Structure formats: C-alpha cells, structure tokens
Amino acid sequence: MRIPNLGETDLLVPLHSGMFEQPMWQTFMRRLRGVCAAEGVAIMLAGSGERHEVVLREGAGVAVPDKAMREARVYTGDELQAADPGLRAVRVGAADAMVTLAVSGSPAPGAEIASLLSALVPHLRVALQVLSAIERERGRASASAEAFRRMNFGWIALDERCRIVEIDAQAERLLERMGSLRRGPYDRLVPAQPAIDRLLTGLVKAMAQDRRHRPRAINLSQDPWVDILVAPMRVDTLAGGGRAVAAVYLRGDRSSIADRHEQLVDLFGLTPAEARLAWSLAQGLSIAEAADAHGLTTETARYYSKRIYAKTGARGQVDLVRNILTGVLALA
C-alpha cells in the first residue's frame, strides 16, 4: 500500500465527487478497499445531535465505532474496544454534520493505514462541507418548490418551434388538469385558443432571434384563472443543451371564481356581493367594468369598493390586488 500524493486522482477525485453517486461514495470506498487490501470499508454520516443517520459499506461488514472520538485522530480497534483489533477509524466534523471513515481487515501495517487516513482528513472535511452545503440548498429548494406548488407556479422551456425541451413537475401537473394549455403532437405546447397559439408561436420565434425581447404576459383563462409569462431563455441550466429559446412561466388557479368568492367572504368578512366585486377588481377590472360585469350601477360599485378597502385594509385597487393575490389566499 502507498499513500497517494495530493495530486493523484485514484482516491481524491471519487472522494470529492462521491456525494453525487447513488449510493454515495461507492467508488471511493471500493478504491480505498483496494488500496488497503481490506476486507471492508465503511462511512457513517451523522447530523448534529443525531445518531447514525446513514451508514455506507463496501465489502465485508464493518462495525462502525460509536465511541467518542477526537476529531481528525486515527484510532485503532483496541482503542475503540472493537472486535477487530485491525480496525482503523477517523472522524471528521464540518458545519452541522460528521463523518466517520473506517477500514477493517487489512493485512497492511496499521501505521500505513493510519497515515493514509490522516492524509485523507482535510479532503474528508472539504467533501463534508460541500455535502452539508448541498443538503442545505436542497432543503431550501424543497421549501421553495413546495411554495411554488402551493401557488401553482411552474415553468416550461421551449425551442423555437414551441416544442417542450424541459418542464418542471408542477407545470406537468398543471397541463394534465387544465383545458387552456396542453402538450400536443411532437411535444409542442398548444394553447386551446387559436389566436393565443399564434401569439405564442410568434413570441417564441421573436425571442429566438432576440434574447433581449421583452417578456409578455398572456391570460389563457378567467375561470379558473390561468396566466403565462413568456420570456427569453436566460437560465442556461434550463436551456436543454442550447435548444431552448424561451421560458413559459405558468400559473393556474386551482379554485373556481365561486370558490374564490367564498374564500374572500371567510378571509375578510365581505358580503357575497362585495366578494364578487373584490375579485373582479383584483383581476384588474376598473370600477365601471366590474359594475357592468355584476349588473351594478357605478355608484353602487364605488360604495361597495369603499367597504371592501376598509375591510381588507387596502388603500386602493393596487393594495387590494396585492392583499388578495399575494396573501395567504394565493396558497388556498
């Protein structure tokens, strides 16, 4: 056995890339077992304040020590009161996690294995820091994805022919249940209304020619409310190898207009008539347009609007839109 130089890749590259394997670090443990001619190698991962969260093994079973260990010090099996006196183990902590690496049943001198594990300590620490950072970001991304799911947002990446290059799970679910937008032949994104189909096709072609083209919002349906925002592709990771030229950000309301009226009554204590008017105003209709839509006189609509603003705490129509569309009602 020989200790690899820091520039060598036989152990260090799979150690640093091993967190992306499934199961993690299998290549690193297999190579470490080969270098040590060991019967088995094990890695134990634990979070702060937690016992054994994850134990990964390669080869014959290795009893991962659960004794108190000083960080970065290599321990023998005797020191750990292990059944295998040839066991060598080291523990490294970083951020809010800890990793224990153990090698068992090697015919190599214990001093050589200890030197190898000591040489790996700084790399274990860096790998653990990266893993901790990835897990934190994964947690944040999961929370963000859940919030987007609750608000019914999704995204779709399109090529210049309006064919779907990439689509997130939420947008896929929205396409399955809505009638105003669907996945057509050859994976083309197809709005139900021909006029909107032509508009979307023209926008995507224009964005393929000009990445600075301004985004365009389009309403697909009013009951339930469905909007899309078409924008030039600016996120390379969604670009599908460069084929995607535009991103469609999609929001589809899960509730009908009748459901929204009931929710406004519950949330703000509005009367049914006030709730109907409030929802129309939140969708951008003017007082006159909302009055006409609900068979009210303009004077009655203005009277209702004053009561709506008082009950919702809005100082005007802009505030009303924000209170209704970006408050907890958006999660309902």
Automatic annotation (TrEMBL):
<protein>
    <recommendedName>
        <fullName>HTH luxR-type domain-containing protein</fullName>
    </recommendedName>
</protein>
<dbReference type="InterPro" id="IPR000792">
    <property type="entry name" value="Tscrpt_reg_LuxR_C"/>
</dbReference>
<dbReference type="GO" id="GO:0006355">
    <property type="term" value="P:regulation of DNA-templated transcription"/>
</dbReference>
<dbReference type="GO" id="GO:0003677">
    <property type="term" value="F:DNA binding"/>
</dbReference>
<dbReference type="InterPro" id="IPR036388">
    <property type="entry name" value="WH-like_DNA-bd_sf"/>
</dbReference>
<feature type="domain" description="HTH luxR-type">
    <location>
        <begin position="267"/>
        <end position="324"/>
    </location>
</feature>
<dbReference type="InterPro" id="IPR016032">
    <property type="entry name" value="Sig_transdc_resp-reg_C-effctor"/>
</dbReference>
